[in-house]
Amino acid sequence: xxxxxxxxxxxxxxxxxxxxxxxxxxxxxxxxxxxxxxxxxxxxxxxxxxxxxxxxxxxxxxxxxxxxxxxxxxxxxxxxxxxxxxxxxxxxxxxxxxxxxxxxxxxxxxxxxxxxxxxxxxxxxxxxxxxxxxxxxxxxxxxxxxxxxxxxxxxxxxxxxxxxxxxxxxxxxxxxxxxxxxxxxxxxxxxxxxxxxxxxxxxxxxxxxxxxxxxxxxxxxxxxxxxxxxxxxxxxxxxxxxxxxxxxxxxxxxxxxxxxxxxxxxxxxx
Length: 270
Prior knowledge:
This protein has one domain: Vaccinia Virus protein VP39 (Rossmann fold). The protein is built from 9 helices and 10 strands. It has a 7-stranded mixed β-sheet, with helices on both faces. The two termini are 25 Å apart. The C terminus is likely disordered.
């Protein structure tokens, strides 16, 4: 009963945060519009409560939403099962197909993870002190290649899987036109490995958005070495954000920097 109550409160909190901010929604749509046109296919890997699904649909894209958490998969079905342009897969994504243990943070389902190293990195880290992963459930594990075989090659894929991003990309052998992947400053090595893996697949260029700002921070796209250097110099207080990769450099041009702008002012919801 207590676990069910914690789950319900955590899900309600996520719905309020991720659907309640109209300014963030407009910024998200503007950023995704760089990569998607009506009729394009998008993958949302780690769909959570589906705010990115909503953004992709507002842009007219077809969406495959992949979410392993049972409670959140149910929410996605309530919100989107009626929509013929949205396909929901209840699974984690990794290097191979099978089963995997998913660690649940019931009050904060945003940070469920299949990575033991992520949980260890969060222990005692600034800003992560209150996070606890108290349950593990076995979930289906699929791969990006398997998803592509079933649904087609996406024009854009968003990957947000709490320290498992490199494992997701290890199951990809097809270059994607564009994608995003989450990074955290408590586990920069995961982003480094993911960037190196992408650079080995195709000649990607990169940019980044901090926290939930939905704003690219660099005026021009960076190569793999440069985005890694930027990541390494971020203070731990930056916490998290998303790396954007594309085969088309024009899609990664950020706004001209504003004099005196603090690029670390947009920190993630916690």
